[in-house]
Design brief:
mainly alpha; Growth Hormone, Chain: A; 2 domains; two-stranded antiparallel sheet; 20 helices; 2 strands; Spectinomycin tetracycline efflux pump; MFS
């Protein structure tokens, strides 16, 4: 393996602190990947401002309209590990291009639709674009010099949170300025731009490992995940102890168990469960679910608390746009601190960086618990939580990629993204259950009591601190990141 980019060992000894020059092409590629990831993540919160109006706009029931949200979450959860595996097998640029095309087509279908079914299908296709993020992270490992890899991966990983954070004010402004279809026309335009950028900017490298796609495994994974996540996301509508919820959830888990046994017998599995069972990978994925839970909680609680009527005695009476603007600084802080986490990773390691991020996230919720009586205080709580998410989310893919061979990086990072999605889905259901547990009557409607919001903050903080405890158990030995310690420029076509 070479010692550097054209430098000799003697030169390195003479100038130990000299930083290698970063190629402009690598920087442009990272910017392209980060922007694509940002837009893909933005799709997750795109329709939150119009969510209460969807039944009226589409002439359907509240339960049916909720499938527009659920479809995106399900498609994203299934897409991330499968896209990661496809990237490892057939080339990451091809999968990135395909993900960008899915984003564009899904957005176009929603923009042209006026009824429920086209929107559900379009939103599901949009969800498939979330495969862009894990594949992009694993590509960064291959195209960047070692001195900026951690920072670049951190920036790419943070787009998961940043996209969601800026989505609320941006989409609220678009809806208030134009028709709701404009949300999807803007998304279509962004998708076309990303397709062009991926095709023109990203380098072509021949790291495709080849092999056969484990189609039966992909089908089992999709069925198992879909059944379990539908049961969790619909539990508040169907009842947590209803036969439908328990039966569907149990069936989903059973299929996932079958998937696990099936994968262990495959020579070319969709997910290498033996690699996934390594302590560093397994514990990072469990921590990802806990921290994903904590991240999603603020996206649900804070906007709702800001928008609650002042007549409740605790609500802050903000408009949709104002609530989004109060929370926008959090997204900016996440964007700012994600690259800084790359420096932390280089200084103290990804494990302790992740623990610091999860700790800050938990402290943000404790801050909100005591100070939820003013919009500016909730903004500060949002900023603290966002800093924690930005730091923590950036460290997870570094931990994963440092523990798996480069030929499995895409699938491994995709599985980590799936675990984060699992955490966010469970958070949505748990927060909804807590908010519905104690209500007051206002104007003939039942709305959450103030105590339910404080309990939400406590549960979210607990999830974050559980993430800290799990992270501290992650071993720091046995990494295989040195299998590839420099970009594969020499293997470009």
């Amino acid at each position: 393996m070479s010692h550097g980019h054209g430098s000799t060992p003697e030169a390195s000894l003479d100038q130990p602190d000299a930083a290698p020059k970063v190629p402009a092409g690598a920087v442009l590629s990272v910017v392209t990947l980060c922007f694509g990831g940002l837009v893909a993540a933005l799709m997750q919160t795109l329709i939150i401002p119009i969510q209460p109006d969807l039944p009226r706009l589409l002439g359907t029931s509240i339960g049916n309209a909720s499938w527009i949200i659920t479809a995106t979450l399900l498609a994203a959860a299934v897409a991330m590990p499968i896209a990661g595996r496809l990237g490892d097998m057939f080339g990451k640029q091809r999968v990135l291009l395909g993900s960008a095309v899915m984003l564009t087509l899904g957005s176009l279908l929603c923009a042209l639709g006026d009824t429920l079914v086209p929107l559900i299908i379009g939103r599901a296709v949009q969800g498939l674009a979330m495969g862009f993020i894990p594949v992009g992270m694993s590509l960064i490992r291959e195209i960047t010099p070692p001195n900026i890899t951690s920072m670049a991966v951190a920036a790419m990983s943070a787009t998961l949170g940043v996209g969601g954070a800026i989505g609320l004010p941006l989409s609220a402004w678009i809806v208030q300025t134009w028709d709701w279809h404009a949300l999807f026309w803007v998304a279509t335009g962004l998708g076309i731009f990303i397709v062009a950028a991926v095709g023109l900017v990203l380098p072509r490298i021949n790291t495709a490992a080849g092999g056969r796609l484990d189609v039966p495994g992909a089908i089992l994974l999709a069925i198992g995940l879909s059944a379990f996540l539908i049961a969790v996301s619909k539990a508040n509508d169907w009842g947590w102890t209803s036969g439908t919820t328990l039966g569907l959830g149990a069936a989903g888990l059973a299929v996932l168990v079958v998937f696990g046994f099936f994968e262990l017998r495959q020579n070319d599995p969709l997910v290498d469960l033996r690699t996934t069972a390594r302590p560093a990978v397994l514990l990072t994925n469990i921590a990802a679910a806990a921290i994903g839970f904590g991240m999603m909680a603020q996206s649900i609680i804070l906007p709702m608390l800001l928008r609650m009527p002042e007549a409740t005695g605790y609500g802050l009476g903000q408009t949709i746009l104002a609530a989004g603007l109060w929370l926008a600084p959090g997204g900016l802080m996440m964007m700012f601190f994600a690259p800084l986490s790359g420096l932390l990773i280089n200084k103290i390691g990804a494990k302790f960086t992740l623990a610091i991020g999860a700790t800050i996230l938990g402290l943000g919720y404790l801050f909100a618990f005591f100070l939820m009586d003013a919009a500016w205080k909730l903004m500060l709580a949002s900023i603290i939580c966002a800093i924690g998410v930005g730091i923590g989310y950036a460290a997870m893919p570094t931990l994963i990629m440092g523990s798996v061979p480069v030929t499995e990086a895409g699938a491994a990072v995709g599985l980590n993204g799936l675990m984060r999605s699992l955490g966010t889905t469970i958070a949505s259901a748990v927060m909804a259950a807590i908010l519905a547990s104690s209500t007051i009557s206002l104007g003939g409607a039942q709305i959450p009591d103030e105590s339910t919001f404080t309990w939400c903050f406590v549960v979210a903080a607990a999830a974050a601190f559980v993430g800290v405890a799990i992270t501290l158990l992650i071993p720091t030995k046995g990494a295989v990141s040195d299998l590839v310690d420099e970009p594969v420029e020499a293997r470009r076509h």
